[in-house]
């Protein structure tokens, strides 16, 4: 899965990191932080929006995510992602996508 092009988040004064108060989500070779319904990635001296690019179905996923499923729920735009095995799953048209 790839993320969108470099997308700096303007006017972001908050410094993300361990103990910053936002949910930390492992993502490939970095950590995203859930902030205001989207994901931030610390990048050099600023913060980028970290969003998936394209459609990436997660095959062979039998587990049904939802309230009480045991995985961290992450508000993301107009839906909820669930952190599972080091990545986020989002329900999409009868299957789960990697986000």
Verbal overview:
- This protein is mainly beta and 99 residues long.
- The protein has no helices and 10 strands.
- The protein is globular and about 40 Å long.
- The chain starts with a strand and ends with a strand.
Fill in the keyword field for this structure.
single chain, about 100 residues, mainly beta, 4-stranded antiparallel sheet, 10 strands, about 0% helix, globular
Outline of the structure:
By secondary structure, the chain is mainly β. The chain contains no helices and 10 strands.
Helix content: under 10%
User: How far apart are the first and last residues' alpha carbons, in Å?
Assistant: 8 Å
Structural class: mainly beta
Largest sheet strand order:
2-3-4-5
C-alpha Rg, in Å?
14 Å
User: How many strand units?
Assistant: 10
Shape: globular
Task: Please give the structural blueprint.
Blueprint: E1 2-3, E2 24-27, E3 30-35, E4 38-43, E5 46-49, E6 52-53, E7 73-76, E8 79-84, E9 87-92, E10 95-98
Antiparallel strand pairs: 1-6, 2-3, 3-4, 4-5, 7-8, 8-9, 9-10
């Amino acid at each position: 899965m790839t993320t969108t092009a470099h997308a700096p988040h303007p006017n972001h004064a908050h410094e993300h990191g361990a103990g910053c108060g936002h949910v930390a989500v492992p993502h490939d070779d970095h950590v995203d932080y859930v902030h205001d319904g989207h994901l931030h990635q610390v990048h050099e001296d600023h913060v980028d929006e970290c969003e998936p690019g394209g459609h990436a179905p997660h095959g062979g996923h039998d587990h049904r995510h939802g309230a009480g499923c045991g995985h961290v729920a992450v508000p993301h735009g107009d839906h909820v992602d669930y952190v599972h095995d080091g990545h986020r799953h989002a329900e999409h048209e009868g299957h789960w996508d990697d986000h």
